Structures are given as C-alpha cells and as structure tokens.
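Write out this protein's structure.
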Amino acid sequence: MANLIAIDWDSHELRAVVGRTGSGGVTITDTATVPLASEEQATITQTLSDLMTTMGVAKGKYKLLVAIGRGKAELRQLSLPPVPPNELPALVRFQAMQNFSSGGDAVAVDYLPVEVADQSTSVIAGGVPPATMKMIAAVAESVGAELKRVALRPVAAAALFSLKSGGGSDIDGDCVLVDLLADDAEIVVFRNGKVVFVRSVRMPQQTAGRTSQVAGEIRRSLMACSTESGGSVQRVIVWGQAKTHEQDVEQLQELLKCDVQTLDPMSLVASDSRRGAAESDFARQHTGRLAPLVGLLAADAAAESTGGQSALLVDFLNPRKSVEVEKDNRVLIGGGVAAAAAVLLVGYMAWSSISGKNAEIAQRQAQLADLKPQVAQADESISRTERVDQFLDASVNWLDQLRRLADRMPPSDQAIVKNINGASLSRDGGGRLTLTAAAMSPVIVDEMESALRDEVHSVAGTGANDLGAKETYRWGFSKTIDLLPTAVREARYEAINRAMEAAETAPEETESKPEETESKPDAAISTPTSESNETANEPTNEPNNGQAS
C-alpha cells in the first residue's frame, strides 16, 4: 500500500488530493483547495507545507504527484509517418523539438498515442522546460516528499474518465469533457473510447458570458479534430456536482443542442469515511476542479499493476521509452568468440613488446609531471574567469530587450503597454522584464505570450482580467519575461569576439604603408590617421548592472 498526495496550482489557488493505493485501487482520504498568493517557488513550498501539516501528511512517508496545465507545459498535436513501436518515442521527441517554441535537448517530452494507421501516426505531445521541472523537484524536496509523477492536467482527468466510465465507448458520436478551473477551461474530446484532442483555454472565472465562451471553444475543438468518419458531438460532460454547475448545464444544452451532464469525480473512486480533516466547503462544492488529481491517483494505481508505466498519462518525469528489440543469441555468441580471440591476440602482442611499452610509459609520466604546474595555473585562471562571468551575467542590454519586445508586441490597435520595468537578477544572473498592459481580447494575450517565449526567454503571467465594457482595451494583464543568464553571456562573448577581430585587422592596414614608401623613395612618408583604426574602435555592448524601466 502506498500513500500519495496529488497537487496542482494556478495563479489563484492550490489544490490537493490525498489518497492511498492498493490491490483494490485508490481510496481518497482528504481533499483541499487553498488560496495561493503567487506562483513563486517559495510561496508554493510554504503553502503546500502548511497544508500537509493540516492534513496530517508526514514528511518522508508520502510520494508526490504533480499535475501541470497550459501555463507550464506546451502542447502540440503531431502527425507522424508510420514507424515501428520501438522507434516512435525517438521520432516524437525529434519532431517535438522542431515544433515547440521552448526548444533544447533538456526539454522533458512525453506523448499520448491517438491513432495508428497505415499512412500516419497521430499523437498528442507535450513539453516542459527544464526550469519548470527543476522548480517542481525543488518543491518536492522542500516538503520532504518523493516526486513520483509530473503529468499533463487535462490528460489526467481524461484518464479518470477512461478508467471509470469506459471513455464514452457506448456513444456513437463524440463525447467532450469540460473542466472549469479558476483561470482555465480544459477540453478533451473522446471518439470511440479514445482521446483524440486536448485543449486548454485561458478563461477567467469572473468573465461575463463565460459559458457562451466555453460553448464556442467546444465547437472550435470539434472542428480542429473533425474527420470524414468523425460524427457530431452527442454528449458534453462537465466535471463537478449538478448543483454547482446547474446554470452552466442549462446554457450549454441550449447553445450546443446536445445532451449535457455533470460528473462528480469523487463518485468514481472510493473515499475514506473519515475524509474531511482539511477539506473546506469550497473543495466540497467545486469537486470538478479535483478531477485531474483524482485521475492522476487512479492512473498511478492502474500503472503499478502493469510495471509502473502508465498508458493513459502524459508523464514528463517518466516518459515513454523505446521498446527493446530481442537480440539473436547466436550473434552475441559469435561476437563473444571474436572478442575473446582479439583479447588473446592483443595480450600476446602486449607481452612481446612489454619492455618497450614500459619505457614509453616512463617517458609519458615524466611529460605529465612537467605539465602539472601548467594545468594548475590554467585551472586557476579558468576559475577566476568563471567568477567574473557569473558577476557579468546580470549585465543585461536592456535596449536589445526592449527592441525585441517592441518587435513581437501586437499592433497598437490590439494591445497597449501601460507600465514596464526591467531588473537585473544579480544573484542568479539574467534579467526580468515586467510589463502591465491591456488588450482587445484574451486571444491577443495568448498570442503575445507565445510570441515572446523562446529558448532563452520564459514568460509567466497572471491571466487576463475584464476591465469593463467602457475600456477600449478591455482585457488587462501583466507578464513577467525572464532572460536566461546564458543568453547574456553569449551576447557578451560575441561582442568580445567582434572587437578582437576588428583589432586584428587594424595592424594589417598600417603595415602596408612602409612597403609603399620603399617602392617610391622620393615619396613623402605620411603618418597614419585615425581613419585606419576605425574598425578597431567599433563600439561594443558594455555591461549594465542597473535597472531599466
């Protein structure tokens, strides 16, 4: 029997479900939803630690499962050529590196197979930057829990539906799952009992007309995954209790003209009769927000019976790996015989020339002893250079960062910046650009966030807030753009290289003048002017340890 705690969070709240797994499946022992002041690592760690104390979750005795959403993971629907199963993980990772904006070999990638046909293979792939994975691991270590899984939140909720409700296999058309969170609406489309489409949409709860927006997003999701064989939507299931989402169900039925139901995730699993030590009234009322966490616990329990790898989750901590192909033992035996013969031959040759080799070894040892002082001096120089580099990594060229921001911002008729502030991170290096702005629609906010994110810039925000119909730019938001210290260092060394190249070309121009005077003795010798050194005096980007705002 294993004790588990599953958590996820957004800019408003942290949600947790505690349970234990055994041969009979998963049993929920406690749930909680608590306010969250910010998404900083220290705030999350302190809030989770206090919550675990309230729940009676002892450090070192529970394993941690984390569900992450659209703000921390990038999601793509990939269509790949047909390949053998043992080659699919490598192909998905290669293709994901070409499509994800947060590229790099260190990105954690996992996928969920959607459809395997003769002509193509379709998968839902997700990627998480290494900084996010490092932060989650640090949170787990700080609260004294072993990190077991880091899964994609909407797929975890879909796993609960697949395990406990058959995945809608009894429905002729499409079945759509909708999870209404504090800041997001997560949509999963099932077809013939399998997940075919996953989407997360930024949609603040306080927005007027939120249900009609959800209906529009459901239509767009169905259009995005429609095929000639795919039918129309037959059922929409909203995670949660009927009394909580009564108005949402009525409006969705009227807008979509289909069957709309609610499904309480707590009704699909066993619960301890003593549950409720830390459970608030809000958690009891909004049980739909706990569907991904309950699904994560249920999928983990199911995976333990099949070796630990879950076929229903997109797990970035335990990604799918290539299937090992059985090898022919005859090839191994033949290779072993050949290797043994080669070893014997090499041993005979080494024995026959051992005296010469000993002399050569002594010579090499003497050379090594002579080089040791130089190596020690070089190591000391490298250490000093690294300390200087770490100091200069906080010297951000704010003009370049502001120019990049201006190039990637939407036009002024779509968004406007109200306040901007740049700060160098003197401790870790790099810089942080914080801006407060407003846009015409939430879609523009998402597009802007994607445009600003790349391999050296991470983007986080608080979500779009409705400022009222009187405002021309109705949707207010704030974004924090972090620049990696490695990018500052690379830019600095590029400037140094340009200056060195310019300095090397300057002597060549001045040396050519004496040769000309030798060929023409009567000519007057002119002194070189400052124009010959223009290349060497090219300006370089000097470090700036201040703040730009």
